[in-house]
Write a structure and sequence with these properties.
Structural class: mainly alpha
Number of strands: 5
Strand content: 5-15%
Membrane topology: Multi-pass membrane protein
GO cellular component, one term: membrane
Distance between the termini: 33 Å
Pfam families: DUF92
Largest sheet: 3 strands, antiparallel
Shape: globular
Protein name: Transmembrane protein 19-like protein
Low-confidence stretches: none
Subcellular location: Membrane
Number of domains: 1
Length: about 290
Amino acid sequence: MDSFSFRCLVAVALSLVIAARAHKRRSLDRSGAIAGFFVMSIHLAASYRYGAMLLAFFFSSSKLTKVGQEKKQSLDEDFKEGGQRNWIQVLSNSGLAAILAIVAAALTSGEDKCLDANKSNVVTGLVGGIIGHYACCNGDTWSSELGILSNAQPRLITNFKPVKKGTNGGVTLQGLGAATAAGFVIGIAYVMVGLLTTKCDADVAWKQLLVVPLASAAGLCGSLIDSLLGATLQFSGYCSLRKKVVSRRSPTVTKISGMDILDNNAVNVVSVLLMTVLTSVVCLLIF
């Protein structure tokens, strides 16, 4: 059995266990578990590094979702116990990366390749895009889950005026710091697994370490883009009946900010797409 076939077997077995465990612990609902199984299988089969980034995002975000649940329930209109994610949320956070992983694996015949634009601009761009994708997803999740627990009052990113917690586009220093740390975790996952599974030429091996600061910056930048989109294209209002910030208009809701153009999933998809492209371009310039 060749290495790619073995990796496929490992991918299916590990993904099945993780998806079942996530469903049992209510991190994913049934549709999310099914989608998660296929997405994880694709990532791990394409490259252990891609799988490591996906799992670093999934496990860390699932853990943080459960931190301070009582407080989040009083502030978040879409709060679900355990943070259950459905298939739409799974695909909005990993669908694009899965496509990039398939293309990259097809171009390399399933062989893991280091970031090296001198050998392959296309593969380097694709891998860079996957890094940016998960740095952005993790940055947005960490900043949302930890930022809402900050004692500081958030400020709207467009004009820096104080807003209520839960307002789309509201930022805190704690949230921005969390986004940077989240990107750092993605970079570490990529580099550490790469050291164990991927052979690089000596002249480019040290460059792979640049993924850590790159992913950290992508986590912060992705969170800022997400906040900017949320503040301008996603509606936020205060409901006098429910006593919390909501994203839907009604007679009892007073507008805080934003237009009713994108919902939360759409904001995530757009910000991830932008960061995927941006990080891909940066990787072509520095590797």
